[in-house]
From TrEMBL:
PANTHER family: FIBRINOGEN ALPHA CHAIN. GO terms for biological process: blood coagulation. The keyword Disulfide bond applies. Residues 1-23 form the signal peptide. InterPro entries: FIB_ANG-like, Fibrinogen-like_C, Fibrinogen_a/b/g_C_1, Fibrinogen_a/b/g_C_dom. This is Fibrinogen C-terminal domain-containing protein. Residues 117-337 form the Fibrinogen C-terminal domain. NCBIfam families: GGGWT_bact. The lineage of its organism: Eukaryota, Metazoa, Chordata, Craniata, Vertebrata. It comes from Monopterus albus (Swamp eel). Keywords: Coiled coil, Disulfide bond, Glycoprotein, Secreted, Signal. It is found in: Secreted.
């Protein structure tokens, strides 16, 4: 379209120049021969008509281009609307999915609660449930223990992976729950154990007082999965800012937690990192920020297509670098001596 327009402009300019030249010639020759002048003036007139012709053609073309532009703009807006509707549909599907999931898991939970309990057998974590022959992955309610001062706690148990007995401490999969939260929320936990959640630093600290193994499972947007496992995992208490200790890495995701070893926990309102920057604000999560990240598992959940553009996503440097936000994460622990 623009090429046509350009050509037309060139033609018009040429014609104008021709007309100008012709007019000059006719002026010069005005005294000598009349027929030449008359012919020349006719030529000029014809040229002028053609110029007028071209001008109107140009106007028509530019009008057409305007409507074309408007049409394109309308199409873009339409596409935008469609993608928004698609997003809404995805969200709706996700909440339906977790609802169905909930119902299934509530049934499992009821089975557990109707089972007889003896006070001597403390249900301390998913490993002790496993040892009492609960072998279905799902939500379980650990009863409160007044002697230990432990409140009732909903947990999600993975009874399948690598022998089972895992208590989940974190999950990212749906992306609706925000992980940009303050110290108190990270202390007590948030989200739903059947969806996206953080179990809570106090609970994690308590569960990991016995020698524990940490397993981190990751999935990317191509559906590939990797894991990182630490044979030793423990946290400091709140007075020690829930400082992280890990050791004895194994797995195929690469060790992107090593950099966070021996660092305090930080949140958007408590900066305990080893950096001048406020990492929790920059990376928008609560985590054991160093200066700042080699992994950011409590970062921002970005959807497919948006997942490679930001440093504050759910990242694991050794697998996908610092700009790739993962699709799914689970962090889970079990006692070091666990045997299934
Ligand atoms: C363009 O010029 C031709 C004569 O050369 C004429 O017949 C025609 O009507 C003109 N068109 C316009 C749009 O002026
Ligand atoms: C790591 O593993 C080695 C070999 O199994 C073991 O000797 C060591 O105690 C482990 N380290 C920790 C901190 O658990
Ligand atoms: C970690 O926190 C503890 C206590 O909260 C503090 O004494 C220590 O200096 C902190 N370490 C770093 C590296 O900030
Ligand atoms: C973490 O630091 C401790 C020392 O505090 C060390 O023993 C351990 O090997 C470190 N873990 C990793 C994964 O480097």
């Amino acid at each position: 379209m623009s090429k046509v327009k350009l050509n037309t402009v060139t033609m018009v300019v040429t014609l104008l120049l021709l007309a100008e030249t012709c007019a000059q010639i006719s002026k010069k020759k005005s005294t000598s021969s009349k027929p030449v002048r008359a012919q020349c003036c006719d030529d000029v007139r014809a040229l002028k008509v053609q110029v007028a012709n071209m001008t109107s053609l140009l106007e028509e073309l530019s009008r057409k281009q305007d409507t074309d532009l408007k049409n394109v703009a309308r199409q873009i807006m339409e596409l935008d609307k469609q993608s928004q509707q698609q997003d809404a549909r995805v969200t709706e599907a996700e909440s339906k999915y977790s609802e169905i999931n909930n119902r299934v898991e509530i049934m499992q939970l009821q089975t557990v609660q109707s089972a007889p309990k003896t006070s001597s057998e403390a249900l301390y974590d998913c490993a002790s449930l496993y040892n009492k022959n609960y072998r279905i992955s799902g939500e379980y309610k650990l009863p409160k223990d007044e002697f230990l001062g432990v409140p009732e706690l909903s947990v999600f148990c993975d009874m399948k992976t690598n022998g089972g007995g895992w208590t989940l401490i974190q999950r990212r999969k749906i992306g609706i729950v925000s992980f940009n939260r303050d110290w108190k929320q990270y202390k007590n936990g948030f989200g739903s154990v059947r969806g996206d959640f953080w179990l809570g630093n106090d609970h994690i600290f308590r569960l990991a007082r016995q020698p524990s193994v940490l397993r981190i499972e990751l999935e990317d947007w191509e559906g590939e999965t990797r894991y990182a496992q630490y044979g030793f995992f423990t946290l400091g208490n709140e007075l020690n800012s829930y400082k992280l200790f890990i050791a004895n890495y194994s797995g195929n995701a690469g060790d992107s937690l090593h950099y966070h070893n021996n660092t305090n926990f930080s949140t958007n309102n408590q900066d305990n990192d080893k950096c001048l920057d406020h990492c929790a604000s920059l990376r928008k999560g609560g985590y054991w920020y160093n200066c700042c990240t080699d992994s950011n598992l409590n970062g921002v959940f970005y959807r497919h297509g948006e997942h490679t553009k930001n440093l504050d996503g759910i990242t694991w440097y050794k697998w996908h670098g610092s700009l790739y936000s993962l699709k799914r994460v689970e962090m889970k622990i079990r006692p070091a001596g666990f045997h299934s």
